[in-house]
Write a structure and sequence with these properties.
FAD/NAD(P)-binding domain; six-stranded mixed β-sheet; Amino_oxidase; FAD/NAD-bd_sf; NAD(P)-binding protein; oxidoreductase activity
Length: 329
């Protein structure tokens, strides 16, 4: 590797994987730039605010099973970025269902954690990568705004179908074995409805109904959760219903989900917004924490579809991807 590209990395995606990979590389002395097409950081660690209310509309909470991730969560709590929310939620009938395992949330919404991780990093939001090329051992990226960036290593954390589209946007061709492995990864969508209410919801303490079924997967009260001053519920459709109705009219989806939620809504609906998460649940993951598609120049794929799903899986995947570039393991 030539001197001008030694220890330089571009990261596509400012979700948990990308932010933690960038932090680890930067701490090791690398120069890292993160590019993300969104307006802010976090990916599905998403909080939206409208009409005086706040809604977590992507990931609703996270758990910590491994010692490594438990240590990270403790650090986030100490920094004021995360808090324990509960030890379980109500079931589909509204009955308490605690199991003793802590569920955590962002202090002011799920975006609090990625915002904390982004401090001190070179994160460029609103930069959609539209072309990727490999030129003489250097990665060259171009964004929709015309921004160009180069580095000696590239980490791609976008959902795999989007990642393949991005990496294949220029003249670079992904090696066949890597392409074959990545094409085996699949996802289910999620339709997420946010509804502002004129009074309390019917969601019981501590603010979540975990259904894990069809047509609904989850109903959350963001006020009881502690992130919204106004009564505000988030309703997640199940993966099958979301797939069948993904392209339906927003008004039809809204009416259906409010109907399914029934008494858990509890009050009159003042306003709503709908989020369509095309790549929400990982239905077929890659078996390893990351995929090193090639070593020179290094190209690494990682995210919540590698080894473990959800927030913990995404976090550990990003750290493992950075570790691969650092020669760990």
């Amino acid at each position: 590797m030539s001197a001008e590209r030694t220890n330089t990395c571009l990261v596509i995606g400012a979700g948990m994987s990308g932010l933690l990979a960038a932090n680890k590389l930067q701490e090791a002395g690398w120069a890292v730039t993160i590019l993300d097409k969104g307006r802010g950081v976090g990916g599905r660690m998403a909080t939206r605010r409208f009409d005086g209310a706040s809604f977590d509309h992507g990931a609703q909470f996270f758990t910590a099973r491994s010692d490594e991730f438990k240590g990270m969560v403790a650090d986030w709590q100490e920094a004021g970025a995360a808090r324990e929310w509960s030890r379980g939620f109500a079931d589909a009938e509204g009955n308490p269902n605690e199991d003793g395992h802590p569920r955590y949330r962002g202090a002011e919404g799920m975006t609090s954690v990625p915002k904390h991780l982004a401090r001190g990093l070179d994160v460029r939001t609103g930069e959609k990568v539209v072309r990727v090329d490999e030129d003489g051992g250097t990665w060259r990226l171009e964004t929709e705004s015309g921004t160009q960036a180069t580095a000696g290593a590239l980490i791609v954390t976008a959902p795999v179908p989007q990642a393949l589209e991005i990496v294949g946007s220029g003249e670079y061709e992904l090696p066949g074995p890597a392409l074959e492995q990545l094409e085996g990864v699949s996802y289910d969508p999620c339709l997420a409805l946010m509804a502002l209410l004129d009074g309390p919801s019917g969601v019981p303490e501590p603010g979540g109904v975990q259904i894990k079924g069809e047509p609904l997967d989850w109903i959350g009260d963001n006020g009881l959760k502690g992130i919204s001053r106004a009564p505000a519920v988030t309703i997640h459709a199940g993966p099958q219903w979301s797939r069948e109705h993904y392209e339906d009219d927003e008004a039809e989806i809204t009416a259906a989900l409010l109907g399914f939620a029934g008494e858990f809504v509890g009050s009159n609906v003042v306003s709503t917004q709908l989020a369509r998460w095309r790549y929400s649940w990982v239905s077929e993951p890659h078996p390893e924490p990351f995929l090193l598609a090639q070593s020179d120049p290094a190209l690494v794929f990682c995210g919540d579809s590698f080894a473990q799903p959800k927030v913990e899986g995404a976090s550990l995947s990003g750290l493992a991807a950075a570790g691969a570039l650092l020669g760990e393991g």
